[in-house]
């Protein structure tokens, strides 16, 4: 549990706000005061929990304004990605638990339906909010019934998230349906890294224009309908009309009324605009709001990523409290190795979907900018783009987190696998990831990649193995190949001087024992070794093997293990339907079970595991060393005293 006793900011007015409805009675000036206190409270909370700081600080005023004007939870406020939701959580009856954010049994770092009625739609992957808001609007108009009632739907989406295809698919549909719907484009000129692409330049052009382009109504002379700041006489009206002619045409052509850009830190602009729109809008409206990521906290404003994600920190100095690492991170090892290969082979190129730092491609981008592509939050496009890079004779590494690769799955099937194109998938954050929780768990890629004909699927057991796998992937030109590795630091193993090429579909023996064989795929190997040590103290020496490949399987090794042991246990950091399922299929097809082999498969359980430390999450999953040991004792029929059977 985070320390609850650290200095708290002085928040007299915020202390009186128990729910969003309490904001209704406050003047604009008092709301500005609430915003200021809310900012301090957010900084204070994140300093003890760590987490997403910059995005929340950027929407403090917007959060206050939305809750002051709209009637949540009847009105559905939907935060895209929802990494900016901490101020929203503080205002919506969760302030007492805000210092448990992202911890075991604490508040989620994202919006979550099961957590609060004020979170009508959960998120964590980007660009879903407009689709969700449209769904709520249509449900409302069709008479859908929910306990809180169905009012307005408001999506708040960042400029980074707006670059994804889904956002445009939703706007296209919303413009066509013409339902009353509010989309707030929170434009802070940042994604995690600076945003890329033509949309970002388009938005920059919009705010280079005069402020306050107005709704169509303004053009028709209905200026008196507008709130006070819009009635500032002829010049303002002229500017508005002038702005209208150039501003927001992209959104208007999609069927939205466009309003903006307005200063998202100025409640005197936000409140009247939102009040007017709430009173008058009939169809879909896009409100373009300019904000600053990290606003109001100097260390965040000054940081390269504007305080996107932070460890716990000291509020006064902004210094983060990071535990020193003993081994290189898997991400760093991948990034470094790829740069080495790129130096020797000018066909190697790299694709990231808005995560240059997160995937370790930043160094590659610096050294070989013409061969490194940040496609924005656009995994589907990124995968197809990589497929065509391969078809065009390049050697693309498509580096994505397991959880975000899910977005590009049809493209993996249709554009890469069916065409047997040699795209190299570097799958980061494989397995359980900790504080980001279930939405970010990399649980499914073993299953969904091994399903595909012709796909080679590897998992690194440690950072040295990752070195070999990068080399193996670079050399593999026959078809697609994927290698997965977890979040965080490696095992601290000795690193090879030179990588060597792994034979496709061949595993390696780690230790030869008897009675039971433990066949590991990926980084559970460390826990398997620990379990084996504990077992040898009990007189059982298991055989240990590292499969390296889930596809193609090392049939010879697996059948040999099966033939020479009473029991075989597979273990992997993935859901059912992955490595173990393929092994079971092989054993069944070969009639091995007919001869009585005891087979067990340790996979992630069929539940979504809430956030906690990765160690805690693996304990919940039943996959730590003690639980592996218990599984062995269980399968061999050795009684375990005082221990629950795994
Ligand atoms: C599909 C998907 N890909 C990648 C991410 C990782 N990610 C989380 S926040 C973020 C940046 C979002 O930028 P923006 O929408 O502008 O919001 P800001 O953080 O600037 O407020 C990214 C890339 C994600 N959440 N979902």
Structure description:
The chain is α/β, with parallel strands linked by helices. Helix content is 37%, strand content 14%. The chain contains 24 helices and 17 strands. A 7-stranded mixed sheet has the order 7-6-8-9-11-10-15, with helices on both faces. It is globular, with a radius of gyration of 27 Å. Residues 210-246 have low confidence and may be disordered. The structure holds thiamine diphosphate (TPP). Thiamine diphosphate (TPP) binds at residues 55, 58, 81, 83-84, 125-126, 158-161, 188, 190-192, 293, 308, 353-354, 377, 379, 404, 407.
Q: Strand order, main sheet: write it out.
A: 7-6-8-9-11-10-15
Distance between the termini: 27 Å
What is the residue-mean pLDDT, rounded to a whole number?
92
- Report the helical percentage: 25-40%
For the sheet with most strands, the description reads: 7 strands, mixed
The proportion of strand residues reads 5-15%
The radius of gyration computed from the alpha-carbon positions, rounded to a whole number of angstroms, is: 27 Å
Extended strand count? 17
Number of helices: 24
For this entry, give a set of tags.
five-stranded parallel β-sheet; 646 residues; globular; alpha/beta
Task: Give a brief description.
With 646 residues, the chain is of the alpha/beta class. 37% of the residues lie in helices and 14% in strands. The strands form 3 sheets. It has a 7-stranded mixed sheet with strand order 7-6-8-9-11-10-15, with helices on both faces.
